[in-house]
Every structure is written in C-alpha cells, then in structure tokens.
Amino acid sequence: MIIDTHLHTIEGSPDSFLPLERAVSRAKELSMDGICITDHDTLKLAPMAEELSDRYDFLILVGAEILTYEGDLLVYGLDRLPKNKMHAPDLAELVSSVGGASAAAHPFRDNGRGMGEVMRLCPHMHGVETFNGSTKPHHNEMALETALEISSSMLGGSDSHWEDRIGLFATQFHRPVRSMTDLVNAVREGATSPVRYDEEASSWIHPEAYLRSVAFPVEQPTL
Predict the structure, then answer these.
(1) Cα 114–120–122 angle (5° rounding)?
(2) Are 129 and 105 contacting, i.e. CB atoms less than 8 angstroms apart?
(3) What domains are there in the chain, each with its CATH number?
(4) Pairwise CA distance, residues 15 & 223, whole Å
(5) C-beta of residue 200 within 8 angstroms of C-beta of residue 163
(6) How far apart are CA 90 and CA 66, in angstroms?
(7) pLDDT of 64
(8) What whole-number distance in Å separates Cα of residue 4 and Cα of residue 57?
(9) Is the pLDDT of residue 218 over 70?
(10) Domain Polymerase/histidinol phosphatase N-terminal, which positions (predicted)?
C-alpha cells in the first residue's frame, strides 16, 4: 500500500496552498492508497477524517507535525497534542507510551526544523523520514544513512504544501492499512519503506537511485 505520510492542507496549515480535495484527487491519479494529513501542531481535521474518507471514497488519516525544541517530529495515533512545547526525546516517549508512533521529519534540513543527530538520543522514536519532497537531496541522503545506522523504520513523504509536490515521495506499507492503528503498528514494527513516483514508468519505485542522480539540489521554503 502506498500512503503519503506527510502533507499539509490549506484547511489546517496556514502556510499550505493545498486544498484537501485536490490532495485526494492527485493522490488518486498517482494510484495511492491513502494520505495521512500532518498539519502543523494540530489535529484539526481528525474529527472529520472518517466522514472525509467516506465522502471521497479514499483512506484519509490524520497525524500531526509537531515542532519540538530540537526540530519537527511527525506523530501518528494521538487523540490530542501536548499543550506545551517539548524536547524531542520526551515527545517521542510520550507518543510511544500511549500507543502511537513517531518519526523525525526531514531531520537534516538546515532551517532549524530538523533534529539531526538528536535522533540518536530518541530511543522511543520509531521512524525516520528518509525521503522528504521539500528537502535537499543530500540532506535526504544523510537521513537515509542515519536511519540505517540506528535501525529505524524508514518513511517517505511529499511534505506537500502545493498540489504539484504530491508524488515526490511517499511510504510503502508492507501490510494492509485501513486505519490509523494499522499505520501506527506498521511504523512501530518497521513494515515500511520510502518510494517515489516515476512518471515515465507510471509506477512507484525505490527513490535511492534518483537521489544519487540529482546534481543540483533544490529546497522549497516550507516548514
């Protein structure tokens, strides 16, 4: 199953220009099986997720991207978010203690929102976003190398704030995902891998070869 595990909607993130309806439409065009909305520091769309899934006949899950003191952490499976800003290791431990899953978002992005080597100090964190669609390729490569070193689950996310970014990267789940519980369990158990949509082949492929072929990295000014 292919699910974009990191994207932002205009309905939930003030810096996004991506309406949820267009995100769903584009994801369907790319033969995705679902999306997981991760708006900034909010679960605003969570109460509507089931209704939205029924309306669009498409799996729509809701997590969040939370800014910690060390950088952004993607969290999945929470019913509510902490009211106060936390350190990344503490937030990862909190998420794990309530049965959720967490992953470092774009960990080597150099705009103050990547936690970098702090990942090694987060024993309760379950995953690393090794491929992020709005991050410089060499920073993605650093994330991949670190995830391999710490034996972490690996995710891919478009980090879309615009429709045309969807498909840059996503996460392949090696078991059926029909609910947030399914997604959480897969991340916690390492049943994931990053993928990229290949326009020429009209299929999802492993993104590592693409990463190494990019000569001039470009980073979008997103959070």
Answers:
(1) 85
(2) yes
(3) 2-213 (3.20.20.140)
(4) 8
(5) no
(6) 12
(7) 98
(8) 16
(9) no
(10) 3-70
Helices (H), 100-151: 137-149
Distance CA 153, CA 144 (A): 10
Q: Partners of 2 in the beta sheet?
A: 172
Amino acid, res. 54: D
Bridge partners, 172 (sequence order): 2, 193
What angle in degrees, to the nearest 10, is found between the helix axes of 20-29 and 49-56? 50
In one-letter notation, the amino acid at residue 81 is L
| Cα 165 to Cα 195: distance, rounded to the nearest angstrom | 14
Q: Collapsing DSSP states into helix, strand and coil, what is residue 4?
A: strand
pLDDT digits (tens, 9 = 90+) for 83-101: 999 999 999 999 999 999 9
CA distance 99 to 51: 24
Beta strands 192-198; 170-173: pairing state: antiparallel
Is the whole model's pTM more than 0.90, yes or no? yes
In this structure, the strands spanning 2-7 and 170-173 are antiparallel
Alpha helix segments (H runs only) across the chain: 20-29, 49-56, 88-97, 137-149, 180-189, 208-213
Distance CA 36, CA 49 (A): 10
In eight-state DSSP terms, residue 160 is B
Compute and round to an integer the Cα radius of gyration of the chain.
16
Residue entry with tokens 């090694």: 120
pLDDT of residue 216: 45
Contact 23, 9 (CB under 8 A): yes
